[in-house]
Design goal:
The protein is an all-beta fold. The chain contains 1 helix and 38 strands.
Length: about 575
């Protein structure tokens, strides 16, 4: 087992910054050698995880098990739960395709550049299309097995087809070659790729203390359990085959991706000692598993993930994306630091894994909040605590209910993300939520700024909002300056109360300072070497710290972002 290597802990010394300098950069390789071409040159140029997904009714959709495929110069996004998908030329502006007969369950989609192929979880039918924008698919084959759980069909450069599957606490990932000329029947016998291994891979542990919300109701979560490995996804990059997997379950804060690597699509596969790939256990966004890694139009890599969500007292899934790369030694890694702060869309920044963060800092964390009213048990501080499991809720959903955040001094504001809850809404949130009747109007509100908490200037006016955005992110056309930010309810749909999980305000990039912390100490647990305690000397005035860590000094590919603590 490798020794844990810590480069340092980084922090901000001003009141508005939690920040870190990046680890030593390793030059990245791309599948494409053409010059980098900027894909978006107009505003907005940024997004902020989690991403809001709407279907044709403009209602928010559950977002689980995401697959992204680049086909004929358009990105295609497929999710579990609906009977349709989306396409976009720039990954910002999406068009929904309603396909009532599309595959159910965790979708598997692959393309050879001419034809797009699809199948569903534990289903035997194989479909294809050469015009996915039309929504017309034709069945072209039938698998030998209906046991391809979390199926991932992969087409190699030589045109050969492979199927990867695995969705279990005890069974392995497997792979078999398919014969498209013979109805997609198996060629030869399946091969075992790998099993879960929580005793050696610490991030695969299912620990009761990491449960965010329980899915098991028939039994308790044991102190430690075998990992649930799921969501296979194969991608080829620079001649290497990267078999991505998710562990350990959506309900855990440590839900994340890992990768195994091989020189052949059939293996043998070697565990990447730099795992996990998309680890994120702190901040507003937690988790990042069961997704896919894809090349953008410039050949750069991105990983789209499912994360846990919580609305109106129920758990669910949403999606995020993180920049990803493969270094010169073939190590695939993502950057989740500041992964829930504003980032640039794919195709805007070269070497996005190091350069995609805007520098706009979180200004609202734990700031003083004033509200119009409070429902018992749902206090105002919940809306600025960076915890998606808590929310402030007004006593009503009436127009005029408001919350005001005092940033402490005049700040430059570049963007805001208003994350709404669905408190006491008459429409239940869950897998069937996307089928709820469409409305003409959804959560409507205004945002104003002030320097004296008396005289207000309108910043955002969504008084007649027609989109059901759970995470309503707005990049301002130009920075605004103010100390107080006020969000006022105009209309709450589905008879719910006005409720905000988190009001997140970003800016002050020019004022942000980065300070490298000394006196860092890491101590492994002698009884369980998967655990280590890291402490450092706190710095007065710091908003937080970024701990970057890894198994080599120049490959600190994982991180923890820590607020209000120094361990």
């Amino acid at each position: 087992m490798h020794k844990l290597t810590l480069k340092t802990v980084f922090l901000l010394a001003t009141v508005f910054l939690i920040a870190g300098t990046s680890c030593s950069k390793v030059s990245e390789k791309s599948e494409k050698s053409a010059p980098f071409k900027v894909q978006i040159s107009d505003s907005p140029m940024t997004f902020c995880n989690p991403l809001s997904i709407n279907i044709r009714t403009n209602r928010a959709s559950r977002a689980g098990e995401p697959v992204v495929v680049l086909y004929k110069d358009d990105y295609y996004l497929f999710l579990t739960g609906g009977r349709g998908y989306w396409y976009s030329a720039n990954f910002r502006d999406w068009t929904y395709v309603d396909v009532p007969a599309f595959v159910r369950g965790c979708p598997s989609v692959a393309t050879d550049g001419v034809t797009m192929y699809a199948c569903g979880m534990n289903a035997k039918e194989v479909y294809s299309t050469t015009d996915p924008k039309s929504g017309i698919w034709t069945q072209i084959g039938t698998f030998d097995s209906d046991r391809y759980g979390d199926a991932d069909m992969f087409i190699d450069d030589d045109g050969r087809f492979y199927m990867y599957w695995g969705w279990s606490q005890i069974l392995p990932f497997q792979v078999v070659e398919l014969d498209p000329k013979n109805g997609f029947k198996q060629i030869g016998e399946p091969k075992v790729c790998f099993f879960g291994n929580y005793k050696e891979h610490g991030f695969e542990r299912r620990r009761d203390e990491d449960v965010i919300f329980p899915y098991f109701t028939h039994r308790p979560y044991f102190p430690e359990e075998s990992p649930w490995i799921e969501g296979p996804w194969m991608i080829k990059h620079n001649g290497k085959y990267y078999l991505q997997y998710a562990a350990i379950g959506l309900e855990f804060s440590s839900y994340s991706h890992g990768v195994y690597v091989s020189d052949s699509p059939m293996g043998p596969f070697e565990y990447s000692e730099h795992n996990p790939l998309t680890f994120k256990t702190t901040g507003y966004v937690k988790g990042g598993g069961h997704g896919s890694t894809f090349h953008d139009k410039n050949g750069q890599l991105w990983t789209i993930c499912m994360i846990p969500a919580w609305y109106g007292g129920r758990g669910g899934g949403e999606i995020v994306i993180f920049p990803t790369a493969v270094d010169n030694e073939g190590v695939m890694h993502s950057n989740t630091a500041f992964g829930d702060y504003p980032q640039y869309y794919p195709g805007i920044k070269e070497n996005a894994v190091d350069n995609n963060f805007t520098g706009w800092m979180l200004l609202s964390n734990n700031k003083y909040v004033e509200v119009s009213s409070t429902l018992d048990g749902f206090g105002a501080a919940n809306a600025v605590d960076e915890n998606f499991m808590t929310n402030w809720c007004a006593k009503t959903g009436d127009p005029g209910e408001y919350m005001t955040v005092d940033l402490g001094k005049e700040c430059e504001i570049n963007a805001l993300q208003v994350n709404f809850d669905r408190h006491d809404a008459s429409v239940e949130v869950g897998r069937g939520f996307a089928a709820a009747p469409p409305l003409d109007r959804y959560q409507s509100y205004t945002v104003q700024i002030s320097n004296d908490n008396k005289n207000w200037t309108m910043l955002i006016d969504k008084s007649n909002n027609i989109y059901d955005y759970r995470h309503d992110y707005t990049e301002l056309s130009k920075p605004a300056k103010g100390r107080y930010v006020k969000v006022t309810n105009v209309f709450t749909h589905d008879n719910g109360k006005f409720s905000i999980q988190e009001l997140r305000i970003f800016g002050n990039a020019a004022a942000a300072k980065f300070t490298e912390v000394k006196n860092v100490m890491a101590v492994r647990n002698p009884d369980d070497r998967r655990d280590a305690t890291i402490t450092w000397q706190p710095v007065e005035g710091a908003d937080g710290y970024v701990v970057r860590y890894g198994i080599e000094p120049n490959k600190l590919y994982n991180n923890y972002m820590v607020y209000d603590n120094y361990t």
